[in-house]
Amino acid sequence: MKVGYCVEGGNDKWLLHGLHDRWCPAVELVEGRFRGSFKRREILHACLELHTKGVEVIILLRDANDENWREVARGDRAACGPQHTHMTIVGVCDRNVECWYLADKQYVAMQTGRPVCEFEGSDPKLAFNRAMGITRLEDQRDKLTRFVFGAPLHNWLANRSFEDFYDQIRLKGNELSCSVENLRESHTKS
């Protein structure tokens, strides 16, 4: 199976790759050409491009920045066009993807050796990138994919925008016989 994706930046991309490695490593990931700040008018073109590459699922992942993530997600879903909505997962991070990474600040502090208080605030992007050694010249692909692979993702469900994204992935995974871990069940068994 092929899953296509379009993201805004490296941290988004490596998050998807970490989830891929954790949940469905047999799936082939196909990166769309689109990268950078999302322009809603480009979404349909991105979906068409990925569809012609034979993907069965399209993942669009972007930051809401200062907008309401639910409204951004609604608009992005509508921009996919009716021919792609059934195959598209729209993930919109409330604020930015670093807020997802930091949904469990204790885990980040443990992984980076930094104090939890360093990651407080409404926009933790700079603190997260600094702690992970991410710069414009070095994106830390392996470090971020391993980080996501080992993260206690059930804690990330406290972030509503991640929970929405996870629910879409789990539903699509069930439709396509790709076993995505049940974070709610695994948490209650722990």
Task: Tell me what the structure shows.
This protein is α/β, with parallel strands linked by helices. The protein has a single domain (2-97, 136-189), classed as Rossmann fold. 48% of the residues lie in helices and 14% in strands. The chain contains nine helices and four strands. The protein has helices at residues 10-23, 40-52, 69-79, 97-101, 105-112, 125-132, 141-150, 160-175, 183-189, and strands at 2-7, 28-35, 57-63, 88-93. The chain has a four-stranded parallel β-sheet, with helices on both faces. Helix 1 (10-23) crosses helix 7 (141-150). It is globular, with a radius of gyration of 16 Å. The two termini are 31 Å apart. The mean pLDDT is 91.
Keywords:
single chain; 190 residues; alpha/beta; Rossmann fold; 4-stranded parallel beta sheet; 48% helix
Q: Judging from the principal axes of the Cα atoms, what is the shape? A: globular
Please report the distance between the alpha carbons of the first and last residues: 31 Å
Lateral strand order in the biggest sheet: 2-1-3-4
**DSSP summary, beta strand count:** 4
- Count of DSSP helices? 9
Please indicate the percent range of residues in DSSP E strands (runs of 2 or more).
5-15%
Series of secondary-structure elements, N-terminal to C-terminal: EHEHEHEHHHHHH
Strand pairing plus helix content: what structural class? alpha/beta
Determine the CATH topology. Answer: Rossmann fold
**Tally of individual domains:** 1
Helix content: 40-55%
Summarize it.
The chain is an alpha/beta fold.
